Structures are given as C-alpha cells and as structure tokens.
Records
---
Amino acid sequence: MVCYRMSNEDPRGLFKNSFPMNLKENKLVKYFIEAKTELEKVVWPTRKETIAYTLIVIAVSVGTAAFLAGIDFGLNQLLELTINR
C-alpha cells in the first residue's frame, strides 16, 4: 500500500484536507437533502385515484394482450392455410 503526504513540512499531515468536514458541502449529502426537498413538493395521488389508475392500466394491458393474441391466431391460421395447400 502506498501512502502519500499532503504536506512536506508536517509528517502527520497524511490525508489532511482530503475529505470535506462540512456535511453540507458533501455532494452525496447535498444530493439527498435536495431530493428530500423535491419530494416534499410532490402532490401524491389519493387512494381512490391510485386504484382507478391501476384498474385502467390492467384493462389496457388485458385489451392489448387480447388484441395481439387475436392477430397472432389469425396470422397462424393464415400461415397454416398457405402451407397446407
């Protein structure tokens, strides 16, 4: 392991000023503080709205699956008619 000194005068100056001591200046801490501030501004949907949106997503997903299954079935039948001639 190689260690470097930050200053030639002070042999105990190892890692001196290497890490910010003020938590507000730490980029990671600053990120979480800003994220918390932004999350406090969010207007969250009510339980009723969440249930309604969930049901819409499920209905659209089932409808899309049925539509794609119908197309798949139709193309499969068309291919079988073409091959069996």
---
Amino acid sequence: MGESADLLCAEMTLAKERCSAQTVEKAAKTKKRMKVAQGRLKKWADAKRRPLEFAVDDHVFLKISPTRGVIRFDCSGKLSSRYIGPFDIIERVGEVAYQVALPPALMVFMMYSTSLI
C-alpha cells in the first residue's frame, strides 16, 4: 500500500509540473501576441495624432462635452454645438495648457488643455 501511494504521489507531482510548464508556455505566447496587437494599434493611433501648438493671440475653439438632455447655447441633442468660440489665447501656461480669454458669461475655467482646444 505504501509503494502504490508513493507512485501515485510521484505521478501527481509530475502531472502538476507538466501542467504548470504548459501554463507558463501559454502565458508567454499570450504576452507575445498581446504585444504584437498593441504595437499594431499604436501604429494606427500614432498616424492619426498630430502635435498641437498654439501661439499667443491665436484664435481657438473650445470643445464642449455633450450631455444628454442639457440645453446648451439654445440647442439640444444632435444639433447642439460641439465647439464654441473663437477665443484668443492669452498665454501658454505649460507644455499642453493655455490660458484663454473667455467672456464673463463663460468664466468656468481660465486654462485649458490642448485636448479641449
């Protein structure tokens, strides 16, 4: 009885090692495929990106985020404005942040990121 239990234990240990080796191998393949897919997506995303830089006294439009059911600038739904402006840039605050001259009615924020310009 002791010999068969030892043999069974050894077989189970060997099976666990094979299973863990297969799991590690599958994980490595998955990582490699994910990296290839990420590289492909990055290539397409980088092709669409362009560096945005503005100078002082340039005119820019501000992007407003659409909110369902909210009437902005006398329209709601599909016909609501996506951008408002043009506004003057007063100064460059950071690498991607600009201070914009807004009318008193729109004084929400003074500085905007280039993603919203």
---
Amino acid sequence: MTYHLKNITAKYAHEKRVIVKNIINTPGDIIPDHENQTLTISLYSLATPKLNEYAKQLCAIINESKTKYPGTNLTLIYEMAT
C-alpha cells in the first residue's frame, strides 16, 4: 500500500508506513451484498482530515483493482463511512 502513496503523500518512507498503519488499524464495518455480489469495507473516520483524504485516495486506488474476496464472487469495495 505504501507504493500507492508515492504520488499522494509524505516524502519519507516512515511517514507512509505510519499512514498505512493508521488506515489498517481503523475500525469499520463489513457489509456483504449478495444480490450485487459486493463486500463493502466501510472505514470509520481517522484522526485528522489529512489522514481521511489519504484513506479516500487509497480506497479509490484499491477499488480500481476490482479484487474478489478469496473463495467468493464478492468484489471488495472500500469506502469511508459518512
């Protein structure tokens, strides 16, 4: 994930790792939708608006990959909870 931060954030690798760690440790909801074959991961707000913006950008990058949850036909969708 730090690779994707190269164009959107901090200059130093340790800052990128801290950002990713904050995002990974963020609580959220997992919402399956079998009708639309999606599994939405809705992350709760992070500590600062800057971190929220980085998380939104990473969600968009990850969503572009249209990754399937292993062992299912459910496409993962990452979003920030409102």
---
Amino acid sequence: MGQPSYGSELISRTLAGIGEEASPLTHLSVIESRSAEFAAWPEWVHPAVRDAFAERGLRQPWRHQAEAATLAAEPVEAMCDALVARLAPHAEDDVALLAVRVPSR
C-alpha cells in the first residue's frame, strides 16, 4: 500500500502507547480512495436547504449521501431492509443493524 491514509494515521495516533494485547481494535480494513460520484438532491429536500449548501460551495451531494437521505425518509423497516440488502452481498459475517429514529419536536 502507498502513502498512509488520514484514517490509518488517526488510528495509529489514537492507539499510540497501547500494546497490541491491550488494543481495543480488532480489525482494520483500508479502502482505497476513488473518484467522487455526485447525485441530484432528493426531490423532497427543501429549496432553502439546497440553497444553504450551495452558498457554501456544495452544489450536489455525494451519491452515498443522497441515497442515505432518501433511505432516512423511508419507514424504519424499509430503511433497515434496504441497508441490510446492500450490506449482505459484501458481508463476510452476520449483519446486525440498529436503527433509532428520534421523533421531531
């Protein structure tokens, strides 16, 4: 692997001085960087929200952010089913998912 990633460096600094036998870290997998994929805002996003992001230079969300926002608007059961379906083809072990939706005020 080439140059250390920010995440790997952060983990190393966080665990500095902790022996391997005492480390709380049980697994580390570094995912290679890839090109950004953007998507359109979900239709239900209020124009004021889009404008606020655009004013800060964020004209479009990344694809995974748009997908997550769309799933978050679904009923909890549908959201969990969709997330597990996406994880299952790549899961090397059992998949557990905890979802908590906090009621709006």
